[in-house]
Request: fold
Amino acid sequence: MGFAYFKKEMLKEARVAYCKAINLNPDLPEFHNLLAILSEKEGKIEEAQMEYLQALKSKPDYLEARFNLANLLFKRNLLLEAASHYKRLIIINPGFAQAYNNLAVIFYYQKKYNLAQDYVKKAEDSGIQVNPVFKKEILKKLRNK
Reply:
């Protein structure tokens, strides 16, 4: 029910449904992940982060929650923490192309252009098309070193 409410933008009702589901089975990570997504949408960033972590506590290899948490940390400019979660995603699933792409962006922001270029290649090798403007910008920075 929570998911149906969420899709209809009935966020209060979705929250109630997710919380009921969590109360019935607190170790089920999917409901923590869904509540975290809802919390993000509501601007409750700390709560969202806590719920993603709770989902991962129950199931450390839960890709969706780990990716969502990494993206949240990235948006909060917590790049080292985000990078550690993206790297963990790659360990769990070596073909997780978006994790490679996002690591490339983090390394670019950290002015580690060689690493950024390496991760762009890994992202493309994993099947994602990396933004060509971003690729050119990395090459430009490497030439100006």
The chain has two domains: 1-93, 96-145. The two ends are 55 Å apart (CA to CA).
